[in-house]
Backbone:
């Protein structure tokens, strides 16, 4: 069946992550179930553009958000591109089918003074490896803009203290190099020394961040540590590691960094993805203007 062939291709040849394959499988299962409601003998190869549009509409009727609907549609688009290359179909029925417009939400980030309060709230307690690990983790996220998965995947060998950089393995295993400032380099040195004494490695992965068992920190453990710490300095609902990534990018642009440089540091393939941070900085400028300028209030003349 074309769907199973496609998923094997994604896993073996495209080197897609297990999570991506799971997500695509779920999306395609939903699509095939919809085809079955129309006609239990209807295969993906037999569908046309109108059927795909009906499926998109059906998802919206079932309460799917625009973002989730577009993700599922993306999986179906990829399936048909694969089928077209393999000669299973002669034309791509998904071509020209658009998903619902997604509302663009500006990234949530910490202001610089909030970031300062964050690190001041977690003192260096040389008797507590947990505090040292948490502070180092937060500082690394904020100082490099790494994603949670990238931090979890870091190994000791990825840190080059002499060169002053960290080698990061990002999405689709693409690598980039991010500079390490003096503060985070010092923090990493202290943490790694304490870690080796307090939590010897339980395996040979060489993971940089280990939990109390000596195994690599899990995604849930990283999320929990960040959320708990951010709760000390902000009331905003979103308190994930990605907030620190957004804060990293926003701080750079607010202090004069070029957009292209920020793109490379974040590991974005497209400059369009990085472009959203210019909107964030402009919104911050507007708020500053409204709060600080004496003529920012509505003083328009009205006819008497």
Residues:
């Amino acid at each position: 069946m074309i769907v199973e062939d496609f998923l094997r291709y994604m896993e073996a040849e495209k080197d897609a992550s297990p999570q991506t394959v799971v997500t695509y499988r779920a999306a395609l299962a939903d699509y095939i179930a919809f085809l079955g409601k129309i006609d239990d003998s209807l295969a993906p190869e037999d569908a046309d553009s109108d059927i795909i549009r009906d499926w998109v509409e059906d998802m919206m009727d079932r309460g799917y958000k625009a973002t989730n609907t577009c993700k599922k549609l993306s999986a179906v688009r990829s399936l048909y591109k694969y089928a077209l290359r393999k000669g299973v179909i002669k034309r791509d029925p998904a071509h020209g089918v658009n998903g619902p417009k997604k509302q663009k939400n500006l990234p949530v980030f910490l202001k610089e003074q909030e970031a300062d309060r964050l690190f001041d709230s977690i003192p260096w307690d040389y008797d507590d490896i947990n505090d040292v690990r948490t502070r180092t983790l937060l500082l690394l996220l904020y100082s490099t803009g790494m994603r949670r998965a990238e931090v979890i995947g870091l190994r000791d060998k990825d840190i080059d203290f002499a060169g002053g950089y960290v080698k990061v393995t990002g999405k689709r295993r693409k690598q980039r190099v991010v500079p390490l400032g003096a503060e985070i380099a010092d923090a990493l040195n202290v943490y790694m020394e304490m870690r080796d004494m307090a939590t010897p490695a339980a395996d040979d992965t060489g993971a940089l961040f280990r939990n109390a068992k000596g195994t690599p920190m899990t995604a849930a453990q990283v999320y929990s540590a960040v959320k708990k710490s951010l709760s000390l300095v902000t009331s905003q609902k979103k308190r994930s590691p990605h907030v620190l990534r957004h804060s990293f990018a926003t701080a750079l642009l607010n202090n004069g960094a070029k957009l292209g440089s920020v793109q490379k540091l974040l590991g974005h393939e497209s400059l369009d993805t990085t472009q959203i941070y210019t909107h964030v900085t402009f919104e911050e400028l507007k708020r500053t203007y409204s709060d600080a300028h004496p003529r920012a209030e509505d003083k328009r003349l009205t006819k008497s």
About this structure: The chain has a mean pLDDT of 88.
